[in-house]
Amino acid sequence: DAHGPFHAASQAQPNIALIKYWGKRDAALNLPVVGSISITLDSLWTRTQVRFTPEQTYDRVSLNGRSDEAEAKRVTACLNLLRERAGVAWGADVASQNNFPTAAGLASSASGFAALVHAGANALNLQLSDAELSVLARRCSGSAARSIFGGYVEWAHGQRADGTDSVATPLLDADAWPLRVAVAITSTAAKQIGSSEGMNRTARTSPYQSAWIDTQEADLATARDAIHARDFDALALISEHSCLKMHALAMASQPGLLYWNGATMECMHRVRALRQQGVPVFFTVDAGPQVKAVCAPSAIEQVKAALRDVPGVLDVHDTGLGAGVRAIAKDA
Ligand code: PMV
C-alpha cells in the first residue's frame, strides 16, 4: 500500500561468528578488513515495529519498553539511510524487544539492526533485495549484515570503496546441518569496551594486525570446506583457532583488551576436556565474557550440564540454528 500506513514489524536472530570479523577498513561505512563466517541462531530474537508518520520530525525509540539515548542515536542514523532511499524526512516510532540480555556479548546489535532495516524498509515500501538489506544492515552494525540470512553465512570483505560488495550470502541452510549452541552467561554487566572501539585500538596498536589480515583467507576457505562437507572436527579446529587468534590480536593492543573473566577461561577448558572425551563440541567467544559452545544435537544436554557446573557460570541458554530476518504480524 503506497499510501501507508507506513507500519511494519520484523524479527531477526543474532548470529555468532565462527571465523571472526575484527577490524574495519572504513569506519564510516563499516567495511571490514577481513571476511567472516557465522551461524544464525533460532531461539534468541529481536522483534521490532517501525511506524513512520509523515508530519513527525523526530524518532521515538523504545528498547524492551525503555528509552535509551545512545541506542536512539544509532537507530536514527540507521533510519536516515532508509529515509534517504525513500526520499522522505518522516519521523518514526520504533519499539524493539529482545528475549535475551543486550550489550553483554550476545550480538544484540546484529539482530537489532537486521530487524530494524527490514521493518523500516517494509514500512517505507522500499523493494530491497536481501543483498541490499545486508549492505544497509552492515552500515548500521557490521555483524548485522549476516543476520539477514539464516544458517551458515559468509560476509565478504569486498573490494569496492563504496562497500556495495561487502555483503553477506548464505553458505548452507540451518536444516542441512542443525548444530546446537549452549551459551554460558558468566556476567550480565554491560561490556566496557565496545567492538568498534576495540577494533580501532587494535588496528592502531596491535603488532599482530597484519598477521591477522594475512591469514584470514585461508581460515575462511577451511571453514567453508568444513561446512560444505559437514565435517565437525575440521570446523571445531578452525573455529577455535579463529577465536583465540582474534583474542590474541586484541590482547596485544595497548592497553591490552581482556574480554574474558575467570569463568570464561574455565568454560573453554571444560569444552576442550569434553572434546577430548569424544564429545563433538567446540567453543567460541566474542568481545565479551560469554562462552558459546557449538555441538552436535546429541551432545547438547551433556554440554549444558558441564557448563552449568563451572563455578561463575550464572546461566546457560540453549539454541539451535535458525532462519534469516522476516516480517511478522504487527503488534506481535
Ligand atoms: O559488528 P559488531 O560491532 O557487532 O562486531 C562484531 C565483532 C565480533 O563479535 C567480536 C566478531 C564477529 O564477527 O561477530
Give the SSE map.
Blueprint: E1 7-12, E2 15-19, E3 24-26, E4 31-32, E5 36-40, E6 46-53, E7 60-63, H1 69-86, E8 91-98, H2 108-123, H3 130-140, E9 152-155, E10 168-172, E11 180-185, H4 195-205, H5 209-228, H6 232-251, H7 262-276, E12 281-284, E13 291-295, H8 300-308, E14 315-319, E15 326-327
Parallel strand pairs: 7-8
Antiparallel strand pairs: 1-6, 1-15, 2-5, 3-4, 5-9, 6-8, 9-10, 11-13, 11-14, 12-13
Helix pairs in contact: 1-2, 1-3, 2-3, 5-6
What does this molecule look like?
This protein has 2 domains: 7-173, Ribosomal Protein S5, domain 2 (2-Layer Sandwich), CATH 3.30.230.10; 180-319, GHMP kinase, C-terminal domain (Alpha-Beta Plaits, 2-Layer Sandwich), CATH 3.30.70. It is built from 8 helices and 15 strands. It has helices at residues 69-86, 108-123, 130-140, 195-205, 209-228, 232-251, 262-276, 300-308, and strands at 7-12, 15-19, 24-26, 31-32, 36-40, 46-53, 60-63, 91-98, 152-155, 168-172, 180-185, 281-284, 291-295, 315-319, 326-327. A hairpin with a 6-residue loop joins β12 (281-284) and β13. The mean pLDDT is 95. (3R)-3-hydroxy-3-methyl-5-(phosphonooxy)pentanoic acid binds at residues 17, 20-22, 36, 107, 109-110, 141-143, 195-196, 286-287.
Number of domains: 2
Could you name the CATH class of the largest domain? Alpha Beta
Q: What is the radius of gyration computed over CA atoms, rounded to a whole number of angstroms?
A: 19 Å
Share of β-strand residues: 15-25%
* Residue-averaged pLDDT: 95
Helix content: 25-40%
* Physical arrangement of strands within the biggest beta sheet: 7-8-6-1-15
Query: Structural class from helices and strands?
Result: alpha+beta
Shape descriptor reads: globular
Q: What is the chain-wise order of helices and strands?
A: EEEEEEEHEHHEEEHHHHEEHEE
Alpha plus pi helix count: 8
Domain Mvd1 C-terminal: 182-308
GO biological process, one term: isopentenyl diphosphate biosynthetic process, mevalonate pathway
EC number: 4.1.1.33
Protein name: diphosphomevalonate decarboxylase
